[in-house]
Design goal:
By secondary structure, the chain is an alpha/beta fold. The chain contains 12 helices and 30 strands. A hairpin with a 2-residue loop joins strand 6 and strand 7. Helix 7 packs across helix 8.
Length: 615
Amino acid sequence: MGRVKQGIPFPLGVNETAGGLQFAIHVLYAKTCCLLLFEKGDVKAKTTVDMTQFRTGTVYSVCFEKKRFSDFDGFEYLYEVDGKLVIDPYATKLTGREMWGRLTEGAVQRGVIYDQAFDWQQDTPPHIKYSDLYVYQLHVRGFTKHASSKVNQKGTFAGLKEKIPYIKDLGMNALLLLPCYDFDEQVIKEEIAMFEPVDKPKLNFWGYAQPAFYFAPKASYAANKENPQLEMKEMIQEIHANRMEVIMDMHFSEDTNVYLIIDCLRFWNLCYHVDGFRLNDNVVPVEIIAKDPVLGNVKLLSSYWSEDKHSLDTSYGQARSVAEYNEGFLMDARRFLKSDEGQVRAFISRTKRNPKNIAVINYITSINGFTLKDLVSYDIKHNEENGEKDRDGTDYNYSWNCGKEGETKNKQVLALRQKQIKNALLILYLSQGTPMLLAGDEFGNSQKGNNNPYCQDNTISWLNWNQRKENEETYVFVKELIAFRKAHPILHTQEELTGMDYISCGSPDISFHGTKAWYVDDSNYSRLLAVMLNGDYQKLPCGSKDDSFYIAYNMHWEAHSFDLPKLIKGRVWRLKWDTSLNTMLDNGEMEVLENQRNYLIKPRSVVVLCGTESK
């Protein structure tokens, strides 16, 4: 195989260097370390290299002089550490897990050496500002695995690539992908055995599982089993070509070395052009990651950031790179939606929250919990099929079934559920911050009340695309709502609105109202709020001022008449949406209100008025 010499400590993994092809691994408290090289599929190693003498600190490294990836292309490798076989944690390709849910028959998991070159052509990351971002959370396998997806390669990166036109047409420009690096989906949870016998491993469908190999795309998510790396790169390249971004959910285990985490994020950004990451900050030192020079303009999503530590130099056009991703908006928005008392004050904070230095990801549903349809169809979780006696999953759903638990043919209940779905979508997309939608919510996807389907690799978790025909009204509503938000910059400002009239136009950029204009009722018993956004503070691309908007939320079970704020001369209030009206979204001319002084809002309804020129 050629002459070998001591390598350099970094980079770890298998890399081409000026001196040749290097293998390096970090091992704590080891007495011996050997590199084993196998020809593809062979049981016996073709070459064994004792690396024990090639050690720097706790890194064992060896370099094959004047060798390149092409000289070892297709070879498999393992390390033997103190007599135990170890897979390289930096392996960028693995054997043995090409088939979803099981090890390939007769295969052994090993790292694979291959030429990583890829022609990215003119691929350029979009670098979309958070204020212009529309996030779509999905599971690579579940998104297209159902027969109704009508893609050629179901449940794969290639299948997702086929759906890019649909996602773009919907209005999304960022995909948040659940774990799509290599992980062991065959997991037995010890507590399951306490409730019932476990005959076979449960599948961890979501991917928050261990062991995991964070540098390797999941081969079972690829149609091209020989080259999942190529398929994933082609998918990302196509996503970028459509001016959309890719954000990966990276869930590191508690014992993961911080340097491996940094190397991993750099790898996905540099080698796969990934635009951002969602990180579990109970393990990842996010403040350190955010200061990494290589990851300086990469989007980083975490449950919490210290705003004081992330000041921006706006004079150089510096954009926010970090974003807060937690359930704060979800909980407050859901409780306000279902008419809980004492929620007005919290909702005011959520609907305007948009810090200067830290972006905020808003969502009402996510992979963990009810879908949007289930949120308005179930009072309690129904996780019996998970095999844990319905003890798994959160009990705090803040949901309401609208009068009947689960599926029903009651027309009044169905009508109320449809209205509540629209109310929820308006709450999400008419709040400041960056909105995120769970894939399938746009066409009424249901998980039958299961709020923790982590182990359901079946029709519970697979999107049934036939539901779009049944819920076309919801789909059209989402699509038009996103387009409407994009068209009006006052609905998605780059910085938090102040609540002050700092341009002396007669009213502040954002103001809050009750049934009486300019007076908020945030008492414990209040279940209503109106928000006015003044378009004079934002300009349209053509240079003219944006329209103003009055968004009234009546979450009470009784109707209320809202006094309307008076507009400046020459402008009138026009009706855009009233969710109590059982009609499809009207794309035509908005109707001028006959009564410009007040508007009667039906129970549990949202009304959106546009303040436009009278002509």
